[in-house]
TrEMBL record:
Membrane protein topology class: Multi-pass membrane protein
Residue numbers binding UDP-alpha-D-glucose: E107, D136
Entry GO CC: Golgi membrane
Organism: Arabidopsis lyrata subsp. lyrata (Lyre-leaved rock-cress)
Protein name according to UniProt: Uncharacterized protein
Binding site for Mn(2+): K271, D295
GO molecular-function terms, A-Z: cellulose synthase (UDP-forming) activity
Subcellular location: Golgi apparatus membrane
Primary localisation category: Golgi
Residues passing through the membrane, by range: 20-38, 50-74, 568-587, 667-688, 700-718, 730-748
Active site per UniProt: D136, D462
Statement: the UniProt record of this protein carries the keyword DNA-binding: no
Protein family: Belongs to the glycosyltransferase 2 family. Plant cellulose synthase-like B subfamily.
GO biological process: cell wall organization; cellulose biosynthetic process
């Protein structure tokens, strides 16, 4: 398939970002931590409990710092050269593209359609692509939208390819007017027509929303009658089949709509179950060796995404046998998520420099064979199956046991593992087999979700699956191009964002307790030591406890009149430590082109997330461990992006930057922290602290008061929320609960 001449320039290059100055900074920060902790130990007996509690918290922080330093030590990523692909490879491998969606209300179908259109239009031979949409909502509206989108695709895809359009998600592309184009030119006419057609599509989808007649109009919708999202049979519909054809028709890849069977009282494993069903149906139909997985709220922002990933898989000098998946950096188009991009850029690249990036659920190209459970040891140097593995893998009985009792499925697995995919000539021929593999009980007693496919037992199926792959000794590659490859949507509004963070953190801690746990089999699995640390990094969400304590300690010290910080040189060391940490994190932001303001906001965001979402995730896990409740995947609510008719507003809406509250418990810790610190500062200012304290060295002072002010600044949105009204103000119920707790705290402290 690939041209074997190694004299040609490589298809990709690994780039190392190791930096000695930064390493010196990390070591200095660690050194400062160490000296502060050793001072605390040496003087433990001279001070009261506060000193010990502070020591506990600072030990936790220094461990997190040590962990992160280990991970950031040797950052790297991979730069692909898609322009070189055509001269090196004459027959590009097929790629199946998966888009899961789950709820037509929380995930508006027009958003799903835009994601699908951006994928259909990527720069790749259309007969090598297939797009599969899994609908866990079993919604006729989603199916209808997809059918309409497939018609528009015949205009959109050729238009993008003809004019080499960069952004191929229509809602995004049509946000901006065309510039530098002569009126009446062919391009401007095509542009107008295409835009009009897209507007028509949006309107049709909008009009169909809530239209119950959809089901009566066409027989095609019969499968959706009398269904509920949690109670229905499997539905498999080939929306569009690329049969070669002529003209524009041959430019549009296959589009398949699927919705697995759901019954109440059956475990469906949320997104993870949907991904495994997608793997099976696509295996039966096109069986491509590579799988691109994109969430429905994310679109391909660069037409070359698939080619970029394929460059890495096909570069021989990189030992393709080892690259299990290629993960792209994720960015977001609708909210200020600089803190997440910064985290991925530094920590993500750091981990990429060890054994490879962690799979983060979207914007990732997987190898089908790896998803089917292969290990690097099962392969020869040229990627073919070793003799031992052939004997182990390709016995029909054992295949049926692991992959389920469908003969067609077993055949497709054999093909995929032997790199002989044998795709169906006519997709509709596989519909029956596809329905069979969608039954609720199909996975019963098989290895799906256990050692094969996307792995169950955590709402963070991405991380869980990723550990499974790296544990078998695979590496992965990270691409973080200058033009974002994928752009996604983040929940609008603070309550939704906190809920999402809580689900993530719950999923991460869940992993600690399942059989994939990075803690288990510390020395027997093939995962590298520092990669294991990378996965352990997920427990940093447990630092919510020391963070919460540390936000309250200075206030306690002011009220109780005891010292939190050492005096003299060691106070200097503490201030230098905080200062260096701030300067370093500020540099991270500025270096990526973000403002000082966004750095300030991020400091606040992380503290708020830690003391609410992460804290509550510990409750969720405790309840799960006690068998009281199960963790659930609450789908984040997505807002429809502004369409072309709604104006040219490019950025997030003006109010979205304002901090909103609702009545949920997520806002209780923040309100409590602010009230307690306010009370402590008030007591300190009027000099009402407890005065009978006997230790001469132990009284509080300006240092503790300054930290109280710092905490208030970090929780500034809550301080503001005390005085605001409506959704921007803290609800009375939260305020009264927090007030009650704050009074108890003050009484207990003085
Ligand atoms: O039962 C379900 C639930 C969700 N989804 C899909 O999963 C995707 C992610 O859901 P979303 O609500 O957008 O969650 P996010 O927090 O944005 O998702 C992040 O976090 C998840 C793990 O918690 C990962 O699976 C995602 O890939 C990652 O982008 C969406 O396409 C959903 O349609 C399903 O298909 N079935
Ligand atoms: Mn999402």
């Amino acid at each position: 398939m690939a041209d074997s001449s190694l004299s040609l320039p490589p298809l990709c290059e690994r780039i190392s970002y190791a930096n000695y100055f930064l390493r010196a900074v990390y070591l200095t920060i660690l050194g400062l931590f160490f000296s502060l902790l050793s001072h605390r130990i040496r003087h433990m007996s001279e001070y009261d409990t506060v000193w010990r509690v502070a020591f506990f918290c600072e030990t936790c922080f220094s461990l997190v710092c040590l962990l992160i330093t280990c991970l950031k030590w040797s950052p790297a990523d991979t730069k692909p050269f898609p322009d070189r692909l055509d001269e090196r490879v004459h027959d590009l491998p097929s790629v199946d593209m998966f888009v899961p969606t789950a709820d037509p209300v929380r995930e508006p179908p027009i958003m799903v359609v835009d994601t699908v259109l951006s994928l259909l239009a990527v720069n790749y031979p259309a007969n090598r692509l297939a797009c599969y949409v899994s609908d866990d909502g079993c919604s006729p509206l989603t199916y209808f939208s997809l059918k309409e989108a497939s018609k528009f695709a015949k205009i959109w895809v050729p238009f993008c390819k003809k004019y080499n359009i960069r952004v191929r998600a229509p809602f995004r592309y049509f946000l901006n007017p065309i510039s530098d184009v002569t009126e009446g030119s062919e391009f401007s006419k095509d542009w107008e027509t295409t835009k009009r057609e897209y507007q028509k599509l949006s309107r049709k989808v909008e009009d169909a929303t809530g239209d119950s007649h959809l089901l009566d109009v066409e027989d095609d919708f019969e499968a959706f009658s009398n269904t509920k999202s949690n109670d229905h049979s499997t539905i498999v519909k080939v929306v569009w089949e690329n049969k070669g054809g002529v003209g524009d028709e041959k430019e549009v890849p296959h589009i398949v709509y699927i919705s697995r069977e759901k019954r109440p009282n059956y475990l469906h494993h949320q997104k993870c179950g949907a991904m495994n069903f997608l793997a099976r149906v696509s295996g039966l139909m096109t069986n491509a060796p590579y799988i691109l997985n994109v969430d429905c709220d994310m679109y391909a922002n660069d037409a070359d995404v698939v080619r970029q990933a394929i460059c890495i898989f096909l570069e021989k000098s990189l030992n393709p046998k080892h690259c299990a998946f290629v993960q792209f950096l994720q960015e977001f188009y609708d909210s200020n998520t600089s803190q997440i991009v910064v985290l991925q850029s530094y920590l993500g690249r750091g981990i990429a420099g060890i054994q490879g990036p962690i799979y983060i659920g979207s914007g990732c190209v997987h190898t089908r064979r790896v998803m089917y459970g292969l290990s690097p040891d099962d392969l020869e140097g040229d990627g073919s199956l070793s003799l031992v593995a052939t004997r182990e893998f390709l016995v029909e009985d054992s295949l049926a046991r692991r992959f389920g009792n469908s003969k067609e499925m077993v055949k497709s697995v054999v093909g995929a593992i032997q790199r002989n995919p044998n795709p169906q000539n006519i997709l509709t021929n596989s519909i029956e087999a596809a329905q069979e593999v969608g039954h609720c009980h199909y996975e019963y007693q098989t290895s799906w979700g256990n050692t094969i496919g996307w792995l169950y037992d955590s709402v963070a199926e991405d991380l869980n699956t990723s550990i499974g792959i790296h544990s078998r000794g695979w590496t992965s590659s990270y691409i973080s191009p200058d033009t974002p490859a994928f752009l996604g949507s983040m929940p609008q509004g603070v309550p939704e964002a906190l809920l999402q963070q809580r689900r993530w953190a719950t999923g991460w801690i869940e992993i600690l307790f399942n059989k994939q746990s990075p803690l288990r089999g510390m020395f027997c699995k093939k995962i590298r030591f520092r990669q294991r640390l990378a996965y352990l990094c997920i427990i940093t969400s447990l630092r919510s406890i020391p963070e919460l304590i540390y936000c309250l300690l200075p206030a306690y010290c002011l009220l109780h009149n005891s010292a939190l910080f050492p005096k003299g040189t060691y106070l200097g060391i503490t201030i230098t430590l905080v200062g260096m940490h701030c300067l370093y994190t500020l540099w991270e932001f500025v270096n990526l082109g973000y403002s000082v303001q966004s750095w300030l906001v991020s400091q606040s965001v992380w503290r708020i997330v830690a003391t609410s979402s992460w804290l509550f995730s510990i409750f969720d896990i405790t309840l799960k461990l006690l068998g009281i409740s199960e963790t659930v995947f609450i789908i984040t609510k997505k807002t429809v992006p502004a369409g072309p008719s709604e104006g040219e507003d490019d950025g997030p809406n003006s109010d979205s930057s304002k901090f909103e509250f609702d009545g949920s418990l997520h806002f209780l810790p923040g309100t409590f922290i602010v009230l307690v610190n306010l009370a402590a500062l008030a007591v300190f200012t009027v000099g009402l602290q407890r005065s009978s304290y006997s230790h001469g060295r132990g009284s509080s002072g300006m240092a503790e008061a300054c930290v109280c002010v710092l905490v208030m600044m970090l929780f500034f949105p809550f301080l503001k929320g005390l005085f605001e009204k409506g959704k921007y103000g803290i609800p009375l119920s939260t305020l009264s609960k927090a007030g009650f707790l704050a009074v108890l705290f003050v009484v207990f402290s003085v």
